[in-house]
Amino acid sequence: ELGITAPKGYDVSFHYNVQMEKHHFGQTHPMKPWRLVLTKGLVTSYGMHHAMKNYTTRAATYDELVSFHSQDYVNFLGSVAPQPTPLDVDNPNPDLRFNLGGSDCPLFEGLYDYCSQSGGASLDAARKLCAKQSDIAVAWGGGLHHAKRSEASGFCYINDIVIAILQLLRVHKRVLYIDIDVHHGDGVEEAFFSSDRVMTVSFHKYDPHTFFPGTGALEDNGPKSEHNPGAHHAINVPLNDGITDEQYQWLFERVISQCVQKFQPEAIALQCGADSLAGDRLGKFNLLVQGHSSCVDFCKKLGIPMILFGGGGYTPRNVARAWAYETAVAIGQEEKMASTVYIPDHAPYRQRFEYDGHLLPSIEQILGEPRQNRNPQKKLLEIVQHVTEQLRFVAA
Ligand code: ZL4
Ligand code: CA
Ligand code: ZN
Fold first, then answer.
1. 381 CB less than 6 Å from ligand 1?
2. pLDDT tens across 141-150, in order?
3. Residue 184: which of 156, 215, 151 has the closest Cα?
4. Is the CB of 312 inside a 6 Å radius of any atom of ligand 1?
5. For labelling alongside 358, which of 146, 214, 230, 314 has CA 20 to 30 A away?
6. Is residue 5 in some structural domain?
């Protein structure tokens, strides 16, 4: 019996719909919605649902989707039929518009439902924050940060984050968006390029020639046109392969504490893409669940209302492990899960963890070959200094 109980003094809410799990991008496509099944399974088998308000979310409506996206795009998304046969990757259908139907953003059965369910869960999380009915709202089905107003991009069709932040802005003066997915949060950054009410901060692997989407250089801080209030409100932290927990944590805390001090956000939107973990199929960082989740812990301790979104993550068992652990961080019960996370493959330790008389599932962290660390400390210091300089232009 783990004795998971509700946190004292604040509320955590969990926003989920099983409809999202069942969609398939295609057999070998890296994005696997069933990683959400694994995550939910860990969360419930540890009894964490007893410590949260659990909401079964509905799909976002057409009107909610067009709060950010163009009507043309949403109409098209709703009308495209899934391809009868898998598309030839070298010959994506030239008739298809809005970057839909290629190998990154395929058309599949139930696509519109998948997109609107993801948007609906994130919007529900935002609404609970606005109504002060939740202090930390968890929406692991969201976090699809690449989608543009009129374009699908990088496995993302509907930008649930932008839709949720627009909702937060109805009540909160300033929103800080933080993105720890290994990819640059370009869609969210672009959506708020001209706003001084949203500051975006993305940590990502940056290599304009070889790594998607190729944007997010240190110097890119929002268009510096004469009357753009959003200038200096985009912060980018470009990184290289192999970054470690110690370095990432060091950088995250220095960058985020400065942003919070200067910008004084009333809400935080944290995209927790798990492709920044070691052993990811697409990412090449060396982060463990410990390092990744320390970002969630750090933000939680700021005491600012927060939404946790999912995002990337292509080694499904690692994704589930990270997001379940981060759910435990949200409810302040991470020590109950610590041993299964800190000790990767020692079978005997598993027996210690029981809940309602059942053995708890233990999902080992798959690390793969450690990546060579290509992040000299000198580079990281330069990043912190650049951020300090940018923030001189920012006033709360
Ligand atoms: C795949 O195996 O870098 C898609 C995509 C489909 C199945 C069979 C087709 C094989 C890797 C990726 C050919 C695939 C060719 N299948 C993919 C420039 C690219 C053009 C497309 O985490 N090819 C594009 C997008 C990135 C590119 C990353 C991250 C999302 C997020 C938030 C999006 N696109 C080169 C790649 C496969 C596939 C195998 C793939 N695509 C890896 N990286 C990309 O930030 C959710
Ligand atoms: Ca990122
Ligand atoms: Zn990613």
1. no
2. 999 999 999 9
3. 215
4. yes
5. 314
6. no
